[in-house]
């Protein structure tokens, strides 16, 4: 069967966030799916298969890190939609049935793909004990998304603080059910983006995720009221970086970005 590696939220190879993508006829057992994801060893590998016509979704979609299945993943959804469109397996808008509900993906005229995800709720919480020491930075504010994506959104004082983080991943692992998203407003108004972020997910086997689409379902409602705009641009990453364009639509958040296939081969398993 064909396996592809797609760099998501970028139009340049070797940037953005890489995801494995396999299109299947049906889902094999979970053990096999997890072994493949561990072998691919990227932050997520996506598995999709077509559904019967006339239903609420066109494709079933699941995502696995090297150690576990996750409820929501943005960059691997973008990667899957890119593969479906680039191979001719799908055209127009695609509806995915996933653990977090029905997700949409639409190919745009400019070559980007816009995804339709549920908006995450944000609950302000006190700074958890040990968080600032684990991050190595002082938190301005902390919000919990436990009822949705399971992350802590941590605002830092500025962009420089976010870019300079060198966390203690073992300490971060016990602080949230999925991950910690550090964020700050862009320092320069001419930077081309409105806010920056970095995402750390050691609890699910990923020390740092380069560009986390699902995190932007929380970052969009966090920053949009601050800027007084529903349309924002987020820049994420440490060693690898990418750009996520967000549009807040109440209980839905639209995520837009490019993707590029960098590897295509045969899986013998």
Automatic annotation (TrEMBL):
The active site is at 44. Keywords: Isomerase. GO terms for cellular component: cytoplasm. This is Phenazine biosynthesis protein PhzF. Signal peptide: none annotated. The keyword Isomerase applies. SUPFAM superfamilies: Diaminopimelate epimerase-like (SSF54506). Belongs to the PhzF family. It comes from Streptomyces venezuelae (strain ATCC 10712 / CBS 650.69 / DSM 40230 / JCM 4526 / NBRC 13096 / PD 04745). NCBIfam families: PhzF_family (TIGR00654). GO terms for molecular function: isomerase activity.
């Amino acid at each position: 069967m064909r396996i592809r590696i797609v760099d998501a939220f970028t139009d340049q190879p070797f940037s953005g966030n890489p995801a494995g993508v396999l299109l299947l006829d049906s889902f094999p057992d979970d053990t096999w799916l997890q072994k493949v994801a561990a072998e691919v060893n990227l932050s997520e590998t996506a598995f999709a298969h077509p559904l019967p016509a006339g239903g609420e979704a066109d494709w079933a979609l699941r995502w696995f890190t090297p150690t576990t299945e996750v409820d929501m993943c943005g960059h691997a959804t973008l990667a899957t939609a890119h593969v479906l469109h680039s191979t001719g397996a799908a055209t127009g808008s695609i509806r995915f049935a996933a653990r977090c509900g029905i997700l949409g993906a639409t190919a745009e005229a400019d070559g980007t793909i816009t995804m339709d995800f549920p908006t995450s709720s944000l609950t302000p919480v006190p700074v958890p004990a040990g968080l600032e020491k684990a991050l190595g930075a002082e938190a301005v504010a902390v919000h919990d998304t436990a009822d949705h994506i399971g992350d802590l959104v941590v605002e830092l004082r500025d962009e420089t603080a976010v870019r300079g983080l060198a966390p203690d991943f073992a300490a971060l692992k016990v602080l949230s059910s999925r991950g910690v998203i550090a964020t700050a407003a862009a320092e320069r108004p001419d930077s081309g983006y409105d806010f920056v972020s970095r995402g750390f997910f050691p609890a699910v086997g990923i020390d740092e995720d380069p560009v986390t689409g699902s995190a932007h379902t929380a970052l969009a409602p966090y920053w949009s009221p601050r800027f007084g705009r529903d349309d924002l641009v987020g820049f994420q990453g440490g060693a690898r970086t990418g750009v996520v364009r967000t549009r807040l639509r109440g209980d839905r958040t639209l995520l837009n970005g490019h993707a590029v296939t960098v590897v295509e081969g045969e899986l013998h398993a």
